[in-house]
Amino acid sequence: MVSDPEALAATIAAFRTGSGPVAVDAERASGYRYGQRAYLIQLRRKGAGTALIDPIACPDLSALDEAIHDTEWVVHAATQDLPCLFDVGMHPGVLFDTELAGRLAGFPRVGLGPMTENVLGLSLAKEHSAVDWSTRPLPEPWLRYAALDVEVLVDLRDALETELDRQGKLDWAHQEFAALAAAPRPAPRVDPWRRTSQLHKVRRRRQLAVVRELWQTRDRIARERDVSPGRVLADTAIVNAALAMPLNAPALIAVQGFGPRINRRQLDQWLAAIERAREIPESALPTATAPHDGPPPPRAWAEKDPVAAARLTNARAAVAALAEQHHLPAENLITPDLVRRVSWEPPAQADATSIADALQALGARQWQTELAAPVLAEAFRAAGA
């Protein structure tokens, strides 16, 4: 473990003078701690060996980032790891994402274990994948497991590059990796409480207010205690309380997910949250659906705009067929959100060139527009657009 300034300085020097790509991975404590911070960061580079860095003891890794920033980073599932790497001052300049490469190459299972087995013929032990990485000291078997995750990443990268080149998809992958590396830090979610599991059961706005108040109370408690929100109160308990709208402590205790073993202080906090929801003026209650800046939900299209609904139906079928033809997931060919947006508000001249321009303005990569725009234009014509 690299857990002091001297060891970190030696690691930085070693990785600065190493050669070839740098394999990078991060371990979080999801399900145990609040948030998605990294509790271990693993790196490997030819000539530098493997380093396991404790980001709690070494919270500023900007000097390491400076040493390897312009070197290609090999990461598996970059969208999962990059946010916690940003927190410690690390951001790749050049990236190769082995999970995304697997998707583009058409592999049906793209987890690191299955990819390593299918591509390299090696089996990775994954028995420690869900452990509490905030544990200190970390047990030796866990460290060995973490080191193995970066041991094979560069070999996997090289094999996938060869396969993508064979399929004529390597340029597609480079465009995707460049977009990932250049992407800004994700913005905070609007109304994150709406991601509560089973929220679809809650129909009335007053009950939605209960969900919001309970979720926010739980989030505050979890943040203060530095524990996963689910360990404070389960999503199902929040939804059950919103549906029941209990008036007092005995009624709340009777709600599934609470029970008699809950301590009095927390019980009072949950009741206070429910009471706050009761007192919210009607005009300030949360809306039945989440606010959004895009088109309406597709289920409403047939009534609002039948022609747009026909465009979307045809577009989805055309994208699915094209994706199958190229042996990759439809959502990687072009994201469903972009298909919905351009189907709802197509350009005035719905030809392939205009649709390609519209898609690129919405963030699609060039390879995506070159493939998808012609079939979308044909789908729109068939819908009478």
TrEMBL record:
Keyword ATP-binding: no
Boundaries of every HRDC domain copy: 204-284
The protein, known as: 3'-5' exonuclease
SUPFAM superfamilies: HRDC-like, Ribonuclease H-like
UniProt entry tagged with the keyword Iron: no
Top-level taxon: Bacteria
GO BP annotation list: nucleobase-containing compound metabolic process
CDD domains named in the record: RNaseD_exo
Molecular function terms, GO-annotated: 3'-5' exonuclease activity; nucleic acid binding; nucleotide binding
Keywords carried by this UniProt record: Exonuclease, Hydrolase, Nuclease
